[in-house]
Design goal:
By secondary structure, this protein is α+β, with helices and mostly antiparallel strands. Among the domains are: 99 residues, TruD, catalytic domain (Pseudouridine synthase, 2-Layer Sandwich); 94 residues, no CATH class. It is 35% helix and 21% strand. The chain is built from 13 helices and 17 strands. The strands form 4 sheets. Strands 1, 2, 3, 4, 5, 6, 7, 8, 15, 16 and 17 form an 11-stranded mixed beta sheet that branches. Strands 9-14 form a two-stranded antiparallel sheet. A two-stranded antiparallel ribbon has the order 10-11. Helix 6 packs antiparallel against helix 7 and helix 10 packs across helix 11. It is globular, with a radius of gyration of 23 Å. About 2% of the residues have low confidence.
């Protein structure tokens, strides 16, 4: 099974709540179609052409670069524009009284072509559609949430909760990634070699144009790693905090399903290790449990006893207890809890008849269409359709030898 062999294999269309539009208003709404561009790159073109600051562009969320996507963006002020090139088109579609945001979207519609399939895989997916329509699947966070694992950084949020601020900072700046190009790898290695000599690190930062504020803070206060971390862009810190929080949610929900053998569970593949999913029957109690708490500081907001125990079990795998699920010493930087919908039900799920795959001889491709609410992952639906019975999921993704070597060096240095 292969996804995204071509950009056109993965199409995403944002579903606009038409009530957002009005006859008049200070905000201009644009329809933005793109491929092979990030959402931020498209927003910068819109801002440039409309002659407004980049921060003036508002949207409901980010869309994949390796896809053909349709989404909406609004700006206040500026000149009305139309724009088109080989990878991007922007057209105005109306006015609105307030900036566009996720609350003005019903979710996304997907058209996904899955390639390199055997006839058996096609049959598995088609047979899985009826139970998936009826029962849905656990609303897990999927691989896109865990760029920290794809880049081999591990759990920076965990290190912060352990109070290992220097290690967390070093990971953010120095940890090698299998996806680094030569320039970035050399820069990280330069920071790693100079680590502890903050003046030398500051000189490297000034040459590279990155992390200058971090090392200015360390030159001023050499042991104040909390102050240095405060100079890391909040967006980067939040990415790692959300990834760690999401990992625990996934593990707690998967642990709950693993206890319920009556639901004939299946294993979904994940960059963070396999995750349990019910098969042709819900786990006992799932029909009455509409949400599962995304845990906040110290698990204090997790009221359901079973959910709290499942989070405690997930934390115990990392040698933490519930009261340690907090970050002390970083101002205004704590995990915030909220209820997350437990069951993800795809809407309008269909599969077109299979066809020969012109990219993979003697294999098939299958085109899927469906709709999902906001904050749901289409790749999970695909994984569920092709899932088969599997042994009990192993532990989460193991760190690579590259990260283990780097971690060993930093641990020795801090002893």
């Amino acid at each position: 099974m292969k996804l995204k062999c071509k950009a056109a294999d993965f199409r995403v269309s944002e579903l606009l709540d038409e009530r957002y539009l009005s006859e008049h208003g200070p905000h201009q709404l644009y329809l933005v179609r793109k491929r092979k561009l990030t959402t931020d790159e498209a927003a910068r073109v819109l801002a440039r052409e409309a002659e407004v600051p980049h921060r003036s562009v508002r949207m409901a969320g980010l869309k994949d670069k390796q896809a053909v996507t349709l989404q909406y963006m609004s700006i206040e002020g500026g000149r009305q524009i139309r724009y088109e090139d080989d990878f991007l088109s922007i057209e105005p579609i109306g006015r609105a009284a307030e900036p566009y945001s996720s609350q003005h979207s019903f979710g996304n519609a997907f058209e996904i072509t899955v390639r390199d399939l055997s006839s058996r895989e096609v049959a598995t997916a088609r047979a899985a559609i009826p139970p998936l329509r009826k029962l849905g699947l656990p609303n897990y966070f999927d691989d896109q949430r865990f760029g920290n694992l794809r880049h081999d950084q591990g759990w920076v949020g965990l290190e912060l909760m352990r109070g290992r601020f220097e290690h967390a900072l070093g990971t953010l700046i120095c940890a090698p990634s299998p996806h680094d190009d030569a320039r970035l790898a050399d820069k990280k290695h330069a920071f790693e070699r100079a680590w502890g000599d903050w003046s030398a690190c500051l000189r490297i930062a000034r040459r590279s144009g990155e992390h200058q504020g971090v090392f200015e803070a360390l030159v001023e206060s050499p042991q104040d790693f909390a102050a240095a971390l405060q100079r890391v862009p909040l967006r980067i810190r939040l990415i790692h905090l959300y990834a760690w929080q999401s990992h625990l949610w996934n593990r707690a929900v998967s642990g709950w399903i693993a206890r319920r053998r009556e639901c004939e569970p299946l294993a979904l593949d994940s960059v963070d290790g396999p995750l349990w999913c019910w098969g042709r029957a819900w786990p006992e109690g799932a029909d009455a449990q509409t949400s599962f708490r995304l845990p906040g500081q110290g698990l204090e907001d997790v009221q359901a006893p079973l959910q709290r125990q499942l989070f405690e079990d997930a934390l115990a795998e990392h040698r933490l207890v519930g009261s340690q699920f907090r970050i002390d010493g970083l101002k205004g930087f704590q995990p915030k809890g909220e209820d997350r919908t437990l069951v993800l039900l795809p809407r309008k799920l269909r599969a077109k008849p299979p066809s020969p795959d012109n990219l993979h001889p003697a294999r098939y491709c299958l085109r899927l269409t469906f709709e999902l609410p906001r904050a749901a992952y289409a790749t999970l639906v695909v994984k569920r359709l092709f899932a088969s019975e599997a042994p009990h999921p192993a532990e989460g993704r193991r760190p690579s030898a590259q990260r283990q070597k780097w971690k060993a060096r930093t641990n020795r240095r801090s002893e």
